[in-house]
Amino acid sequence: MYISQCLIAKNEEDNMEYCLSHLKSVVDEQIVVDTGSTDRTVEIAESQGAKVFHFEWVDDFSAARNFALDKAKGDWIIFLDCDEYFSEDSVSLIRDYITKLGEKPQIDGITCELINIDLNNKIIATAKNISPRLFKRKDYLKYNKRIHEILCNTRASNSNPVLADASDLLKIYHTGYAAEEINKKNKNERNINLLKKELEKTPQDAKLNLYLSKQLNIEKKYEEALDYCLKALQYIDKTIIYDYYCIIYSTIMMNMIKLSKSYDDLKSIFVEAVKYFSDYPDFYMHMGTISFRENRIKESIDYFEKCIYYCENYNKDIECFALGKIEKIFNDLLKIYLMDNDKSKAVKIAVSLLNADKYNFEVLTILISIFSTQEKEESIALFLNKIYDYNLLKDKIYLLKASKIVKNEKLADYYKRLLNEEELKAVKDSRMLI
Questions:
Q1: pLDDT digit string (tens) for 382-404?
Q2: Pairing relation of β-strands 76-79 and 3-9?
Q3: CA separation, residue 154 to residues 139, 141, 157, 160 (Å)
Q4: What DSSP state is assigned to residue 134?
Q5: Each residue's pLDDT tens digit, 331-360
Q6: Mean of the per-residue pLDDT values of the chain
Q7: What's the predicted TM-score (pTM) here?
Q8: How far is CA 46 from each of CA 32, 38, 110, rounded to the nearest angstrom?
Q9: What is the Cα Rg of the chain in Å?
Q10: Kind and range of the H or E run holding 257
Q11: 51 forms bridges with which residues in the sheet?
């Protein structure tokens, strides 16, 4: 089984080395098609042993990708963007999956989970990749669309390749949606221009209108973004419900929130959306946000709780932003429970958040504040010892500071007594004590 990795690149010197090197143990050749780099992209690719080809940019991503496919010799192709890479656990599984599925003639490719992350490795959104990154090299598998290009079966009437789903084990991380990367590479201006060119040919293409809306949203052009997304909704065929339609509804709601549209306006979109996609978490996230903003406490609790439930049970192929914002949703829900005086649920959610990140100082102070109205200091300290290590200086300092913030002097004294003389001196010298 011969495997080719393909990339198209322009000014990707920051990403090129790792994107190539992390798959050295898997692939037999690496093809890099450069579309006009002015940095060290080509030099780095060649130093990694890649075969570098030059392609004159013609404002068409599919043309560049298909050129790369023509240069590849593999039985299978791994086609990543330069800012994409497989998780460490996935790399060792790729060849086994390809070998296993390569024997099935009806299978064209493999679906992976695509996880969009920022530069701090925090999740922005997750989805099963719509256009496969792993697929057979076949004459009938070609890329289509000038931008947001997808792999198509040119011989099939519905054009969709037949894919085996390995998204539970094969994970791809993508950093290209990080705001810093978008701004650095000026991707938005390029993408907006390409999308507008595509729309000149097919102005009633719902997906293209959606893509343009999303790009304009990133540019904070919310009125224009909303206009294009409403056009996308106008052009959908409601007799055939595609998964990406839920993204149209979600993007409309997201832009409405940015434009401070009324609760009733969002609710009308929400009611229509859930007729078709009742379990899509982003709808409930948006409604929870607008309800919270308008002080509809009970409603915001209901929406956020449903959002969390649907996130925990999410199994769609389509992109979900609520999954990437789940920590913020939990934090907002914690504050709302406190506003609703539901201390029991507030404690439960605070403990969950601290079990995930015990150094969330705001949540820790909230939890100690709640406990201070209900429990004795000895019981509080005993409970917190389940989360924090009383042998670690950092943990003791966090607990001491939080106790002082909520003015529980007895608890603060308890944690102060846990410090030995050396630790206490170090704390005082560095002015860590409040």
A1: 999 999 999 999 999 999 999 99
A2: parallel
A3: 9, 6, 8, 9
A4: E
A5: 999 999 999 999 999 999 999 999 989 999
A6: 91
A7: 0.79
A8: 9, 15, 28
A9: 26
A10: helix 245-258
A11: 31
